[in-house]
Amino acid sequence: MPLMKCNRGSSFLINGPAFIALHDGKSFLLGKRVVAGEEMIVPKGKSAPLEVESESIIEIRPGSGASINEFVGAIPNDWKTAVETILNSKAPLKVMIIGGVDSGKTTFAVYLSNMGFDRGLEVAVVDADPGQGEISPPTTIGLGILKSGIISLNNIPSEDMRFVGSTTPSDLDSQMRIIIGARALVDKAFAKGANLVIINTCGWVSGRRARDFKISLIQSIAPDFLVIIQKGSELAPLITVLDHFKFIKTLKISTSPASRVRSREERKSRREDAYQSYFAKSKARVFNLIETPLLNGHYTYGRIMPSTLLEDIQKQLRLRLLYGELGDDFLFLVTEREADPMEINKLREITGMNDIIIMPKGFEKGIMLGLISPDGGFAGLGIISHIDYESKKMVALTPIDCEVATLVIGHLKLDDSWHEVCRLTQAPL
Ligand SMILES: Nc1ncnc2c1ncn2[C@@H]1O[C@H](COP(=O)(O)OP(=O)(O)O)[C@@H](O)[C@H]1O
Ligand SMILES: [Mg+2]
């Protein structure tokens, strides 16, 4: 593509993937100050508004499906006013962003980060979206501290992460891990010297459970400013509650006319690319679950059932029981095949146990794991390959070879090609 001469005051929208180089002049790309000689990439699936401050010569090399058009108002005026209000307030500041899927949360986080960085603030971002987060891999949430202006959050060097174990917080384990993890990452950001901490969140906002989760997250973070991006009326019930929280200043802004809607498949395929690159260099590692215990779940927490007892029980069912543990309040069984609801009821009758966890043989393969280091921090992700239940040895694929203290069982299962197979409502072990 030839060089483009752009007049002072003009504005463009660049739809990625595209390489951009500024040969002369001064411009702002998503609020990042760009000077002559700088090169940048607008990633696939992302759009970036370019605002020309002084006559500029720009080279654009578009990738497949990319485009560049004159576009006025990609950064809405209410975004600019909200950023001014925030940056005119006294630091240190915590700014949390909420809104539905594709409302522009991540883009606003980038824009505010750049504007804050340009004013000399120490900017940190806690990307608390375990599905579409950009600072850390899917199923985790991440903290990054800006060292330069950015085009997307994945330009920020990652400082720390926390394991969530799922790509949406629709189960209670994931909700708890996000609420605790995001708060810990915010505290760490301040400890590292940040004075503007931006907390980006996931797009799960509709319905009672989503609302309760968002309110708990807001209470745990206690932001100075809550930026609410309104796309339709989906946030109305949440706003009704938040209007009573006098300790938070809310800034209601609109979705940009330049925003794009990404399909569920696009979002899923983005995550799967991320798993693939994360696990590219992984190796099989054996964990002895006595020395490196599971932090959650039932398996290893009960007394091993003698084979005579298992045989007695299985005589009353048509299901082979391969391994069993009896806990104070649960029964954990590894079975030849999946049990049907009638068989589970029968097991309840026979054993008098209400909480029965059934693990069909081999079902553990593909379950996501969080590896926790001895200091309690997150060491990395793993994927279970196999468990030898008798000897309590687990084989997992992981790129991590440092010391691991404990393992957390996630709620997501991947297949050998890094496709998401299923999401489990509770930790399956
Ligand atoms: N102000 C904006 N200017 C240009 N593109 C935008 C803007 N806001 C959102 N987009 C585009 O819309 C899509 C969704 O925005 P994103 O910030 O990822 O939403 P969310 O984080 O709320 O899901 C992305 O492709 C993004 O590049
Ligand atoms: Mg986002």
Largest sheet entry? 7 strands, antiparallel
CATH class category of the largest domain: Alpha Beta
Strand content: 35-45%
Rg: 25 Å
In this entry the ligands are: adenosine-5'-diphosphate, magnesium ion
- Under CATH, the topology of the largest domain is which? Rossmann fold
So how many helices? 8
Domain count: the total is 4
What best-fitting shape do the alpha-carbon axes yield? elongated
Structural class given helices, strands, pairing? alpha+beta
CATH H level of the largest domain: which superfamily? P-loop containing nucleotide triphosphate hydrolases
Low-pLDDT stretches: none
Total beta strands: 24
- The end-to-end distance, rounded to whole angstroms, is 55 Å
In the CATH classification, which architecture of the largest domain applies?
A: 3-Layer(aba) Sandwich
Helical content stands at: 10-25%
Mean pLDDT: 94
